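Changelog note: in this version the structure field was regenerated for every chain. One regenerated record is shown below for reference.
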Amino acid sequence: MAEFEVCELLCVGVGETALDVVREHLRQQGHPALIRYDVESRTVEARILAAVGGGPLIVVPVGDRGFALEECTTRAGFEALSDRLRARVIVDRNRGGYSLGTQYEFPYGAFTPPRVLWFSPTAQAGEAALVARSVGFPIIAAPIGDGEALVAPHDPGVLLMAWHAMRSRAVLIWTNGVHGGFGVWDSAGRIVHRWGEHWWWVDPSDGSVTDAAGRIVRDALLEIADPPPDFARIVAAFGLDGAGAQRLRPLIDPPEFSNDTVERFVAAVGLPSGLSALVGGGALAHRLPGARDVLPASWWAALLARLSPAR
């Protein structure tokens, strides 16, 4: 049984100095965490060590020179962080957490949402309508190659949540220029890989706290929050042969991420070449031949689609 999991923290609408502020705050509060700043979306994201099924953990002193981990049961530290940043702070959003603060200090237009593309290699009947129902508003579907590409022009990021919630053959690709990623499903579940994310470590114990197995807590958190990619599983999910695997390998962790990374990835895994232009913003989905607006399916149609055999 797992000993730890991750509680996610997102600080929205902040400047570059917020990275140091949040890092200092988490250290003062005692939270072991990984943290990064996203210059395009103006957010600071942290992955905080948490108890399984519980709240975030803090490092507490034990005796003269010892440390231990203890579950944090108060919101006060996150409320203070929201006040200090004068920004919205969202805690544990993936587990029905809570949001603090309503102030946004960044100018309109500074927030850049990711460009997200949903691509089904083989068009699935009713899938576009079901995705539209999941995101709650119309989307654009366009045939490309032998499959179908979906985009959500009003709020691209919601496709990320829909893809995580709906088991599908679809491949998800996203980027905002400085980092990006892809997702694919196989028989064991979803596989997600991210490019261009650079994390900083916060350890209030300076490496003194270990888990039940004797591992330094930093290593335990890295294993959960930022695990190395399962390259063999990615290769199998895309059905690549040996040559295809060799083309893909340098694109898993390239020295730098750019739109060229996406273009080369699309080619390496055998997806239609036009997808990279859609993700990179060089093409608009509604201008593709055969593109159509797709309205959310009725709840009955969505239920029938969910009850249909797994694709």
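Spot check on this record: The CA atoms of residues 83 and 101 lie 7 Å apart. Residues 18-29 form the longest helix (12 residues).
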